[in-house]
Design goal:
By secondary structure, the protein is an alpha+beta fold. About 35% of the residues lie in helices and about 35% in strands. The chain has a 7-stranded antiparallel beta sheet with strand order 1-2-3-5-6-4-7, sandwiched between helices. The longest helix has 18 residues.
Length: about 170
């Protein structure tokens, strides 16, 4: 017996396929900068999940935290490139620990997950003071591939580009 597909479901799915970026939901938690957007897009035929602050902070905050600190690590991926349940549990611990480590010295502004890796984007006053702490933090966990890159981004261009790519 064939059951008809509800028309609203067809329209919803069609709209989902139409947009390259679709806000899937708003995060339940808030950062120091307010609510987050959680987005999904396909990159190289695999999903990528992006969590990003909804709005850019004031110029004052941008000037206070002019350095972009990207913390990247790999994980055991499912066939679609997303993490396994075990790696999701570890990621929650890493998020919490990194947020505590950065503390008042910076702001977590975005996270990208997919393709067997995760990148957390923090805007910080300066990266040098955090390097030792980040190294010690990851040394306390089972071995994983970690890369930390700091670059000047006083206008928060990386987050600005992500927000401008979202069709609202």
């Amino acid at each position: 017996m064939k059951l008809p597909i509800p028309r609203c479901l067809i329209h919803w799915f069609g709209a989902l396929l139409f947009f390259a970026w679709v806000p899937v939901c708003q995060a339940q938690t808030q950062s120091a900068l307010g609510p987050w957007l959680i987005l999904e897009r396909n990159l190289n035929e695999q999903p990528e999940i992006v969590s990003v602050i909804r709005d850019l902070p004031s110029k004052d905050i941008q000037q206070r935290f002019p350095v972009l600190l990207k913390i990247m690590w790999g994980y055991e991926a499912l066939p679609n490139g997303l993490p396994t349940e075990r790696d999701l549990i570890l990621a929650r611990k890493l998020y919490s620990g990194l947020d505590s480590l950065v503390g008042e010295q910076g702001i977590h502004a975005m996270t990208r997950t997919g393709g067997g890796g995760r990148t957390m984007y923090y805007y910080v006053k300066e990266a040098g003071t955090l390097n030792k702490g980040i190294r010690a933090f990851f040394d306390a966990y089972p071995p994983i591939s970690v890369k930390v890159v700091a670059s000047k981004d006083p206008s928060w261009q990386r987050v600005r580009e992500m927000l401008s790519a979202i069709k609202r």
